[in-house]
Amino acid sequence: MSTSLQFAPAVAITGGAVLGICAAGKWLLTGRTLGISGGVKGWLTGDWKPWRLAFNGGLLAGGIVAGALAPAVFEAPPSTFTVARAALGGLLVGLGASLGNGCTSGHGICGNARLSPRSLAYTLLFMASGAAAATLTGTAAALGVADAAPQLALPPLGDPQLQKGAVLAALSVLSLVGLAAAAESLSRRAVALAAEAMCGFLFALGLTYTQMVRPAKVAAFLSPLSRCWDPSLMLTMGGALAVALPAFQFVKRSASAPAKPLAEECFLEPAASGIDARLVVGGLLFGAGWGLSGMCPGPALVSLVARLPPPPQVAAYCGAMAVGMAVDCAACGTLVCAPTRASKAEEKKA
Fold first, then answer.
1. Could you tell me the pTM of the whole model?
2. Distance of CA 194 to the CA centre of its chain
């Protein structure tokens, strides 16, 4: 049975803006980049700090709520989309994200919002590699996407779907502004952890609203030579950057910007800055896995908990993604599947 897609520009842009609000809010409040793969990889390197638990917990909680509110979005992949394909995609994405130190959120949104040449190069690499992999292996067809142009949806302003997006965007802004105000009177550490959890939670809802949790929708975007090509993801990324870029540049360039985050001690810039072999290989591998599966770390983790039990393809993808990250960590000698002493100290402070 084929799946017909719908292209709703207003939904894609509005949902993208929610993702940008989350990225900007986390940066301004905690000084940390919103990166899903980095949030996962830390568990494999012994970096079990409380903020990581709060962010990942918020993301998964958001996935559970999203699954209850919009179960139809989390469709089960067809049998033509095999577990083996999903697992190979997850393995390549995990390995690539670890090598390149980021994914579609960390590099694609936050890194590009910082105007990082490294993130731009990684983004171009995974986009090109993803399109090549999806096109050459027929990912859209494997996911049952109909060989037809997506139906253009231009609903009026009073449409319920657009109202939901406006409410979600308003909720995101009000939640993070409220936390910023609370940082003046409450424990800054508590506010930072609440911000991590809230950003993860809202990010999961934003991914669901844009339907980027649907592998079929992503695969259609990565199939530019097909009649089913769907530009929704491009508008979602654009909406995210339209919000995140001014926020990141304000912090980096404005004399009136705060010297440190509202709830932490400093802004944490990525240590790596150059375009090296690890970045290039990582971008190519990440894109190949993305194109094979139509999934990247954030949407996959949200989908993992939105339907219980999860589809075997999603479970296989997430498990293989963790293995891919672990392989690179083991090769670098950083694989530590237990909290380090520093992380334990952080937990006691919290």
1. 0.95
2. 19
